[in-house]
Amino acid sequence: MSNAQTSPLLALKNSDADRERIEAAMHTAVETQDAYLTEIASHLIVAGGKRLRPVLSAVAAQVVGAKVSDDVIRGGVACELVHLGSLYHDDVMDEADTRRGVDTVNAKWGNLQAILAGDFLLSRASEIAASLGTEVAGLLARTIGWLCEGQIAELRHTYDVERPETSYYTSIHGKTASLYGTAARIGGIVAGHDQTTIDALTDYGNAYGMVFQIVDDILDITATDEQLGKPAGHDMVEGVYTLPVIRTLTLDTPAAGELTALLGSALDIEQQRRALAIVRSSDGVASAAATAQEYVDRAAAACSSFADTEATAALIAAPAALLANVAIDA
User: Fold this and answer.
1) CB contact at 8 A, 295 and 216
2) Which among 133, 140, 31 has a CA at the least distance from the CA of 83?
3) Is residue 253 one of the residues assigned to a domain?
4) pLDDT at residue number 327
5) pLDDT, tens digit, 9 for 90 and up, residues 232-274
6) Residue 89: inside a domain, yes or no?
7) Residue 243 counted as domain residue
C-alpha cells in the first residue's frame, strides 16, 4: 500500500513526460560494462515506484516557471538512487525477503552482493551530484550522513519501550525527510532560484517527508494486512516503536500498561494481535495524526511566498493528500 498513491505531485501537466525522463535517467545511471552488476543495481528500479523524490525536484523547479532541465532530472535521480541504495542495505539488516512485490536483492543474490550493489548506487548518486557542482555534491554527501544518523537513532532504541520522541524524529528526518528536503533543494538550486526560494523549498521538502513517514507509520498500525501487502504492525514486531506506539505507551491507562508489558522483546502472533488492538483503540493514533497535521501546516507555510502557479498548488495539496489516507484507513 502506498501512502502516495493519490499525490497531487503526480497530476501536474507534463508529469507523465517528466516521469518517463526520470525513469530513463535512472536506468542510464546504473548501466555498467558488467551485465551482472547492472542487473543487480537495477533490480528495484525495474520493480517500479512512484519516484517521488525526483518528481519533487521537478516540481520545485517549476514554482517560478522554470523548465525542468535534464540537470534537474538528474539531481532528483541522485536522491532516488540514495534512497534505493539505503533500501538494499535495510533489507540486509532486516533479513527481508520481498520488496515492492519482488524478491529482495539479498534474497535473490545474497547479502554480499546486496551490500556492494547498495554501495554502487550511492557512488553513482555521488557522481551525478558532483557533476552538478560542489554545492549539490556537498548537500548529497550530508544527506547520506543524515540517513546514517537516522538509522543509528532507530537501531539504538530497538525494543526500547522508553524510546524518546526525539529518537523517533531524528530517525525519520534522517531516513525519510532529509531526502525529500534535499530533492526539493536540488531542484531549486539547479533551476537557478533565489536563495530565499531555495530555503523555502528545503523547509517544504523536510515537512513533506515528515508527514510521509508519520502517515506511513500510522498506516502500519491501522491498515489491514491486505492493504499493506505485509502483516500489520511489522515495525512493532521488529522492535521499532513509532510515534503512534510511543504516544500510546505514555498514556496513563491500563491498556498502556498492558502494552508496556507486551513490548520490549519479540512478539508471537497472539501478542502481536493484542498489541495492535491496544494501539488501534488508543488515543495514540489520533495524537500521531495531529502531529502529522502540524507538519502539513508547516509545508503549506513554506509555500506562502511562492508564485500562484500550478506547481505551488500541487506542493500545498500534496501533504494534506498524504494525511487524508489516514482518515480513510483509520
Assistant:
1) no
2) 140
3) yes
4) 60
5) 788 999 999 999 999 999 999 999 999 999 999 999 999 999 9
6) yes
7) yes
Phi, psi of 321 (to 5 degrees): -65, -40
> What Å distances lie between residue 247 and 66, 139, 168, 255, 288, CA to CA?
43, 33, 11, 12, 7
- d(CA 81, CA 262) in angstroms, rounded, equals 38
Whole-number CA gyration radius for the chain? 20
Q: Say what percent of the chain tops pLDDT 70.
A: 96
* Residue count of the chain: 330
In a domain, 1, yes or no: no
Instruction: Read off the C-alpha cell for 75.
Output: 539531481
Residue 259 · residue 278 · CB < 8 Å:
yes
- CB distance 50 to 178 below 8 Å: no
* Phi, psi at 88, each rounded to 5°: -60, -45
Centre a 10 Å sphere on the Cβ of residue 38 and count the other Cβ atoms it contains: 16
Give the predicted TM-score (pTM) of the model.
0.93
Phi, psi for residue 147 in degrees, rounded to 5: -60, -45
In sign, the C-alpha dihedral spanning 117, 120, 122, 125 is: negative
CATH number at residue 41: 1.10.600.10
How many structural domains is the chain composed of? 1
Instruction: Classify 103 as helix, strand or coil.
Output: strand
Domain around 29: 8-329
98 by DSSP, 3-state: which? Answer: strand
- AA identity, residue 233: G
Report helix, strand or coil for 211. helix
Identify any residues that bridge with 98 across adjacent strands, giving them in sequence order: 103
In the chain, % of residues over pLDDT 90 = 77
